[in-house]
Structures are given as structure tokens and as C-alpha cells.
Design a protein that fits this description.
Layout (H helix, E strand, L loop, with lengths): L7 E5 L4 H12 L3 E6 L2 H13 L3 E6 L5 H15 L2 E6 L4 E2 L8 H11 L1 H10 L3 E10 L3 H4 L5 H20 L6 E5 L8 H4 E2 L3 H13 L4 H14 L3 E2 L3 H12 L1 H12 L19
Parallel strand pairs: 1-2, 1-4, 2-3, 4-6, 5-8, 6-7, 7-9
Helix pairs in contact: 1-2, 1-10, 3-5, 4-7, 11-12
Length: 281
Amino acid sequence: MSSGGARRALITGAASGLGKSLALRFAADGWRVAVCDLDEDRVRLTAEEIDEAGGTGMSFRADVTSEEEIQHVAESVSDRWGGLDVLVNNAGIATTGRTDETSMEDWRRIFEVNFFGVLRTTQAMLPLIARGGHIINVASFAGIAAAPGVVAYNTTKAAVISFSESLRAELIEKDIGVSVTCPSFFKTRLMETSGAPHDKTRAMVERFMERSKVTAEDVAEQMFVSVRTRQFMLIPHADARWFWRWKRFFPEWFFKGMKRMARPTSRPENHDRARQGQDVG
């Protein structure tokens, strides 16, 4: 960790939702927090709220699909703060659709943001991270459950989990910890930026979000604590943790539940091309 002055964090996709909640949690502990997002106005407001919450904010308009823009963020952080103690790869997009509904263009787009965005940002920031530092990659419980109807999103998040496992082992000698966060449903701007192919899917997701007892602040708190404890796998939802155990120890029983979920996604009207969501960071 930084040997002098306030500790330093960078969070992608921090204009709203989980990224913003985590930025304010770091700020409450006096951290310097750099935030970036495609939404320049909102991410600037996040930086102002970081200042008000007790931290020091710095904002960037940056697209995680652009190597040039991410490198600019890395150079700016290095020049102004000399390095980082924590990197949080939070930026991502959502989309829905079965394998036969999702075009190659949509596959490439969501991988470019959700997976290659994580990889690209990690490669750019890794030289800045001090010994004793930490990286948090935001995946999703979707990457574990692999439910039908959201195949591209599931696959990108599973890739983030696998990447995090490899990265954790690679960084042991540098004394840099790695966590991967796999939340289930909680209230975010997900449905504003996702491509739900029909109203029923949108209504179902929004209903799960409304019913969730877990908030963005709850998830952010667990992520903040993981910097100290170095817990690797974070599954904030209690029911998701049970499903995780169910899949690990009784995989065929778990698959029977997936088959029941698959039936509603097989209707003919679902075979229109899945609409791709907008990049949120």
C-alpha cells in the first residue's frame, strides 16, 4: 500500500450504481479515488461527491474498449498520484438472448467491454499498483449459474471469474491481492442499458431487482472489506451462495432447475436478434 498520504483507488464504470457506491465508500475512509465512465457529466458528479464524503476525487471520461483512453487514465493517475493501491474493474454492459438470437456483432461487443475491458484496464494499471495492493474484478452470479436466455452475458462474466483466478496466482510474488465479485440482482441502472428482447424479460428482471434485499451499498461494503481480508470470491447474496453450493455438489440437480428456466425462453417470439445494451463505463 501507499507509504505516504491517502491511499489511492481507481474505479471504472463509476458514474452510478455499484461503481459510485464503492467510490463513496472509499471516500468515507479518506481515500483518493479516481473514477472513469463514458458518462462524463455523471462521473464528474461522482468525483464531487467523493470530495464531499471525505475523500479526494478525480474523474475521467474514458471508454474501457479504447486502449488509448485507458492508457491516458493510467498516465494521469501516475503523474498526479504516483501509483495506485486498488484497481476496481467495474465497467460493463448487459444483453439478453439465446445463442441462436445473438449475432456475432453482439458477441464481440459485449466481450470487448465486459472481458477485454477488464483485461485492458488491468494491463494498463498493473505497473502502477504498489506491493500490498489489490484488484477487484466485478463479474456476476450469472457467470456461475449460466442461466439460459442470457448466454453472451453469462459467458463474459464466467471469463472474468476465470481470469481473476489466474491473475490471483500470478500476482502472489508481487503481494497484490485479487477478488472477484459475483452479485445477483440488486437495484442498478441495468435495465436502462441492457437489450431485453421483450417486455416480459424486462419486467422479470425489474421484479427481481425490486424484491432484492441487497443494495449496491451492501455489495460495495463487502468489496471494500475484501481489500483488507483479501477474500477472493465474493457472493453478496445469501440465496446465491446456496445456489453456488448446490451447483458445486449436486450439478445434475442444479441443471434440472436450469431446464425449467429454459422453457419460457424457447418461445418463437424470442428469436428476434437480441438488442445490445449501451456501454456504461
